[in-house]
Specification:
The chain folds into two domains: 128 residues, Diaminopimelate Epimerase, Chain A, domain 1 (Roll), CATH 3.10.310; 152 residues, Diaminopimelate Epimerase, Chain A, domain 1, CATH 3.10.310. It has a 20-stranded mixed sheet that branches. The chain is an alpha+beta fold and 319 residues long. Pfam families: DAP_epimerase.
């Protein structure tokens, strides 16, 4: 039996569940000891929207202790017993997914693998470290950890560190690279027409090209909005920043939403806005709205909290 056939056999008969967070969709399986062989070809076939179940990513729920990364996590965070083993739709392994981790906690909860009431939180192991996820009245809020400039002071001083070419733009545009545990390149556009006119079915070209690829976010700033507290984490009506966002995800293509991309886009827009820019942002993506809030973390670094909904859609068995 070939390796691919063996991997397919490992999933045959297993229950797979599809979930989504603001239109970013994922296939979930429970595999506590990480015994199933998940090669890239198999994941890509399952995530194919024409010949498989269709999804932006594939997530295995496994015990943190089964991964070398997880064993290091448990040394400092023994409570993080579940690990989000995340793969992009093309089968490549990725460090983190903001919509994915919210949907992952909803999957664990609905499968009875954890108990989590509104107001409680759970620690989740990921390849980007431990993420603390709190259940809210309308979904989940995730402490995504600190954000940073990928290229350090050079980016901070100039406000840009690369150029991006995309189908629908006549000329390359300046961009800023932001890390959320995974790489992002953020481009500011001047109008909704420019944003809507992009063809993101073709991957944007970044110069200089990142060695391991990057997610590319195109943003348009909007007028300040009033957040009722239904999505965000401040819990009171406040004036917040707002942007529209479209994203081309590394290893996937254009998606309806990207959680880490929303955080990176808000961080870049806030940086460009200067000292008077707000700390809370509403990010409008094709799949809905996410709230991004900048707070001081316990490590005295500026953390990003991502809030939004998540739902399970259906279950199926692979044949």
């Amino acid at each position: 039996m070939s390796e691919n056939a063996s991997a397919w056999a490992d999933l045959t008969g297993r229950t797979l569940t599809k979930g989504q967070g603001t239109g970013n969709d994922f296939i979930f399986i429970t595999d506590p000891k990480a015994e199933a062989v998940l090669d890239a070809d198999l994941v890509a076939r399952v995530c194919d929207r024409h010949f498989g179940l269709g999804a932006d990513g594939f997530i295995r729920a496994a015990h943190t202790e089964t991964f070398s990364t997880g064993q290091k996590i448990l040394e400092k965070h023994p409570e993080a017993t579940w690990f989000m083993d995340y793969r992009n739709a093309d089968g490549t392994i990725s460090e983190m997914c903001g919509n994915g981790v919210r949907a992952f906690v909803e999957y664990l909860r609905t499968e009875g693998l954890i108990s989590l009431e509104v107001g409680e939180h759970v620690s989740i192991g990921t390849r980007a470290g431990v993420k603390t996820v709190a259940r809210t009245d309308t979904g989940y809020a995730v402490d995504m950890g600190p954000w940073s400039f990928i290229h350090g002071d050079a980016a901070r001083e100039g406000g840009e560190d690369s150029q991006v070419s995309a189908r629908g733009l006549k000329t390359p545009r300046p961009a800023l690279s932001i890390s959320m545990g995974n790489p992002h390149t953020v481009v500011m556009l001047g109008s909704d027409g420019k944003l809507d006119g992009l063809d993101l079915g073709v991957a944007p070209v970044i110069t200089p090209a990142p060695e391991n690829g990057t997610n590319v976010e195109f943003v348009v700033p909007l007028e300040l909005e009033h957040d009722s507290g239904d999505i965000g984490v401040l819990g009171e009506q406040s004036e917040v920043g707002a942007i529209r966002l479209r994203v081309h995800e590394r290893g996937v293509g254009e998606t309806l939403s990207c959680g880490t991309g929303a955080c990176a886009a808000a961080a870049a827009t806030r940086f460009w806005g200067g000292e008077d820019a707000p700390d809370e942002w509403l990010v409008h993506v094709p799949g809905g709205t996410l709230a991004v809030t900048f707070v001081l973390g316990p490590d005295d670094l500026e953390h990003v909290v991502l809030a939004g909904g998540a739902q399970m859609v259906y279950t199926a068995q692979l044949s």
